[in-house]
Amino acid sequence: MRLGIVLPRAGDGGQPLAPRTLADAARRIEAAGFHSAWVFDSIGRGFLLPDPLVALSVAATATSAIELGTGVLQVPLRRPVELAHRALTTHLVSDGRLLLGVGAGSTAADFAAVGVDFASRFRQLGESLDVMKKLWAGGRVGAAELGPPWPVAAGGPPILVGSWAGSRWIERAAREFDGWVASGARSSWRLIREGIARFRDLGGTRAVLTNVAVRLDAAAPSSDAPDAPFDLVCPAAVASDRLQYVKSLGFDDVVLVASRYDDAHLAELRGLA
Question: Tens of pLDDT along 52-69?
């Protein structure tokens, strides 16, 4: 099982991001032996996250081997041709290392902020992905054509669909796309177990459990009740057992939300697996 880390959303001590924060963190994540670095996506909620594709492009220039993923990017908030162009550029500068985790979005405030209809987000997601895949393949959609894609980025990045365990989109993730992204923060122990079983039964390949909070200084383990959120807020030995459990369920990747990015802490987290 591969371990990933979410790139920082703030600087040391909760300070604002500094110019080198993302690049330095990406470099440390790769040096610590993690397999991937990830970003989240929100717009206009009153707190600021780096633009996902810009942040991953920065991380790409500071690393050479780790995969770079969005977990997940809310596709309906963007125009599909522009998004296809930006994603292809990030795939290029990362030398083909981009994993494009996508979703319809679940926070109405993001849609209100950019003036996009929230109720039609699932339809918009499907239509946009169709447009993007056609453009990445060198095709034309209406008046839009990106031209022959750069060879290293031809065909575009793998697409992993973020969805709830019971959603019809988990079937599409398994049968039409390159994988499934589940959220530890938004899914219970029971839901991740049910979701991965359904995904595998449908023939799905790569399964990523992202947004997993980790805090190894907890005096006692957080709840492992069936309807409690899945996390690693627990002593290190318990965290290792929980990761082994996730691996036994069939997940290929787990993406941790770290509180610090110093070398010692990253080494501690990498040692969990």
Answer: 999 999 999 999 999 999
Token pair for 114: 């950019």
Beta bridge partners of 244: none
> Buried (b) or exposed (e) across 177-201, using 16+ Cβ within 10 A?
bbbbbbbbeebbbebbbebbebbee
Nearest C-alpha neighbor of 208 from the set 101, 82, 62, 78: 101
- Could you report the per-residue pLDDT of 156-194, keeping only the tens digit for each? 999 999 998 889 999 999 999 999 999 998 899 999 999
CATH class, range 2-270: alpha beta
**Averaged pLDDT for residues 112-131:** 98
Would you mind telling me the total number of residues written for the chain in this entry?
A: 273
Closest Cα partner for 181 from 97, 267, 91, 69? 69
In degrees to the nearest 10, what's the CA dihedral of 95, 10, 231, 5? Answer: 20
Residues in contact with 63: Cβ distance below 8 Å, sequence separation at least 6, in sequence order: 26, 27, 29, 30, 37
- Phi, psi angle pair for 143, to nearest 5°: -90, 0
What would you report as the CA-atom Rg of the chain, rounded to the nearest whole angstrom? 18
Rounded to an integer, what distance in angstroms lies between the CA atom of residue 151 and that of residue 250? Answer: 33
Residue by residue, DSSP assigns 215-226 as ETT-SSPPP--T
CA distance 105 to 118: 8
Sort 157 into a burial class: Cβ within 10 Å, 0-12 / 13-18 / 19+: buried
